[in-house]
Automatic annotation (TrEMBL):
GO terms for biological process: tRNA nucleoside ribose methylation. Keywords: Cytoplasm, Methyltransferase, S-adenosyl-L-methionine, Transferase, tRNA processing. It comes from Allocoleopsis franciscana PCC 7113. This is tRNA (cytidine/uridine-2'-O-)-methyltransferase TrmJ. Catalyzes the formation of 2'O-methylated cytidine (Cm32) or 2'O-methylated uridine (Um32) at position 32 in tRNA. It is found in: Cytoplasm. Residues 18-166 form the tRNA/rRNA methyltransferase SpoU type domain. The keyword S-adenosyl-L-methionine applies. It catalyses: cytidine(32) in tRNA + S-adenosyl-L-methionine = 2'-O-methylcytidine(32) in tRNA + S-adenosyl-L-homocysteine + H(+); uridine(32) in tRNA + S-adenosyl-L-methionine = 2'-O-methyluridine(32) in tRNA + S-adenosyl-L-homocysteine + H(+).
Amino acid sequence: MTSSNPDGGEPEMKLDNVKIILVEPAGPLNVGSVARVMKNMGLHQLVLVNPQCDPFGIEARQMAVHGRDILDAAQQVPTLPDALKGCQRAIATTARSRALPTPLEPPRTALPWLLEPGITSALIFGREDRGLSNVELNYAQRFVGIPSSSEYASLNLAQAVAICCYELYQSTQTLSSPAHILNRVPPPQTGETAPLDVLEGYYEHLETVLLKIGYLYPHTAQSRLEKFRRLLNRATPTSEEVSMLRGILRQMEWALQSLPKSDVVEGNSSQES
């Protein structure tokens, strides 16, 4: 089966900054198949985290076929954080919806988020037998689950990568169209966004504490707080999340009260950054 790119190679350019990360792959045939489908779909960066097989051996190379250049250029790293260095966005694939803080999304909805211009991103796949651990899932910002029949929902690693690579490639075909931009879905919320008055209470509390510890100074507090506001407004936190942040501030205040005044004054030398 063959495919063509009527746009003369432009979609591939949009995929250059997407890493496909395999965590501890155990099957060389899977690794080779992944390299092949990446070549099919215009992806080039393959990262192998602590592979449990020979990813460059004869079996992998036979399965890679014309994707051997992808295989030869694959990066090997010891840990997932090493694989994610330089990435601003990461999506993990998993079937473990109950263990996640946010809902699973279908690939077609979530994966275009990885294609933002100027962003280096990653799509993470777990082990063939048990996927990604809870600790490893914490490194991702969004989570993808591939819908499949309840009679047999488990997908082979190479099959899962193929589906996601296909969806990424298809996204490049329409990514620049106005209709697609309007329909892009942001990361899902786990609850109702905090009301503005709740956020305002947090900002006031934050300013008070940061002034106490010397991180802020009265003459620069307003401009510095504007940066915190922009950061939190992008995150659109829930009321529960804002409550958690205020709990941290209250604990900081308690800790400050338990210190001798001389220690607090000496600690007010933190540099603003």
